[in-house]
Amino acid sequence: MKALVIHGAYGSPEENWFPWLKRELEKSGFEVAVPEFPTPKGQTLGNWMKVLEKYDGWFGEDLVLVGHSIGPALILRKLEKVEKPVKAAFLVGGFARQIGDPRFDKINATFFEKEFDWGKIRGNCGHFEVFHSDNDPFVPLKFGEELAENLGVKVTLVKGAGHFNRAAGYTEFPLLLERIKG
Q1: Dist CA 38 CA 44 (whole Å)
Q2: Which domains occur in the chain, in start order?
Q3: Which of 11, 34, 45, 71 is the most buried (most CB within 10 A)?
């Protein structure tokens, strides 16, 4: 099994629960990559897709995708284009349209220039899970619910998890690990 973990805007592979998840999945025999995407400078869908293209050989039925914040939008864009469906996608604190926050809407704009092809996305992934918090200071719950609805799943609501980041105490994420290994 393989796993790709996608960080968010203003983020990095070394923050939040990403290093912990990488270590834990590797202990379970996964090959794991947590690529670094340009942000905030150079953050465009095109630039992020170029980074992700380095892992095109990983795509197939033994790949699990994990995205945080804007990461899920990148995963959705990639799933519109892949030729081999992936096993699963775990989307954490994500959204599929602008959130109305100028700190993020400008650098996230290219991810949302066109509508998502939900049919193609659902057809290219065997299993989706959407995790959202009831007190996310950046991405209100309605965005997670909308994302889940478009994917035909229910939100896994995690109470008090904020934006699932270090500031909210998320340097580990056991529930996510359990679901991925599930």
Answers
A1: 8
A2: 2-181 (3.40.50.1820)
A3: 71
Q: How far apart are CA 46 and CA 64, in angstroms?
A: 22
Q: How far apart are CA 179 and CA 158, in angstroms?
A: 13
Which letter, b or e, does each residue of 39-76 get, where b requires 16 or more Cβ atoms within 10 Å of its Cβ? beeebebeebeeebeeeeebbeeebbbbbbbbbbbbbb
Please give the span between the terminal C-alpha atoms of the chain, in angstroms, as a whole number: 13
Polymer length of the chain: 182
Q: Could you read off the pLDDT of 37-67 as tens digits, one per residue?
A: 999 999 999 999 999 999 999 999 999 999 9
- pTM, two decimals, is 0.98
Please report which confidence band the pLDDT of residue 149 belongs to, taking 50, 70 and 90 as the band edges.
very high
